[in-house]
Amino acid sequence: MTVDGSWTMKNTKLIVALDIPTLAEAEKLVKLLSPLVAVFKVGSELFTAVGPSVIQMIHSYHGKVFLDLKFHDIPNTVGSACEAAARYKIFMLNVHTFGGKQMMFQAVQSVHKTAEELKIDPPRILGVTILTSMKETDLKEIGVNQGMEKTVESLAVLAKACGLDGVVASAHEIESIRNKTDKDFLIVTPGVRPLWAWHGDQKRVMTPKEAVERGANFIVVGRPIIQSPSPLEAAKMVLKEIE
Ligand code: C5P
């Protein structure tokens, strides 16, 4: 916000998750929010429903795209998917760190090769650590027994060693990830809930202000903004908290 109280600058820390099923609804939100918000997240719901036209739509409003398809497959397949994604000239994409070293390595190589070929800045590649909808007991259920913090920490260290630009993790793990990586390693945190918002299925939540104070480079907010009766007012309230 500027000193006279007007909202003229785009915020670069807030990523709005466009978790909606149609291009028309997505465009309505992007049109409304793009004067304030620089980055929009396109996840599996919207991309599966409408395909790459949503990326072109966001670019047409000068927005940046975080393509959140969380690739997780054999290295060759993930490498090819990352190459296809990089061709859309997006800002950010992600893969699952559980796919392992070779898979993450291949993602980095494919993205950089494609960016060189197209002479563009490579999209930032993030590794998803543990979903913010999961608790310690959910981890145990799938046979991961070393605890949330240790698991996230080791996945982040592995992601960095493979050349990823950062990770997606809960705000609760920011401090331990920072300690084990460095200040340039990006930490993107979903599971962000302002005090006035409902938690839904998110379990490891934190407020926007706390997440940014702990060192999140980007926060991802979906339903508290997009399902609000006034998405613009909701976005302004989130921005006010973090600026
Ligand atoms: O509506 P809400 O604010 O909970 O949306 C969070 C967004 O972040 C969703 O699009 C979800 O897919 C995504 N996300 C997440 N946890 C992760 C990675 C991505 O919630 N670990």
Quick structural summary:
The chain has 243 residues and is α/β, with parallel strands linked by helices. Helices cover 43% and strands 18% of the residues.
Structural summary, described in words:
There is one protein chain. This protein has helices at 23-33, 44-50, 53-60, 75-86, 101-118, 136-141, 148-161, 174-180, 208-213, 223-226, 231-242, and strands at residues 11-17, 37-43, 64-71, 92-96, 124-128, 166-168, 186-189, 218-221. The chain is α/β, with parallel strands linked by helices and 243 residues long. The chain has a single domain (11-242), classed as Alpha-Beta Barrel (TIM Barrel). The protein has an eight-stranded parallel beta barrel, surrounded by seven helices. Helix 1 packs parallel to helix 3 (53-60). The protein starts with 10 loop residues before the first strand and ends with a helix. It binds cytidine-5'-monophosphate. Cytidine-5'-monophosphate binds at residues 17, 19, 43, 68, 128, 131-132, 168, 190-191, 200, 202, 220-223.
Tags for this model:
binds cytidine-5'-monophosphate, TIM Barrel, 11 helices, 243 residues, alpha/beta
Assigned CATH class: Alpha Beta
Can you give the mean pLDDT? 94
- Strand order within the widest sheet? 1-2-3-4-5-6-7-8
Number of helices: 11
CATH architecture classification name: Alpha-Beta Barrel
SSE run: EHEHHEHEHEHHEHEHEHH
Strand content: 15-25%
Task: Give the CATH topology.
Answer: TIM Barrel
Integer-rounded radius of gyration: 17 Å
Given the helix and strand composition, which structural class is it? Answer: alpha/beta
**Low-pLDDT stretches:** 1-8
Principal-axes geometry comes out as globular
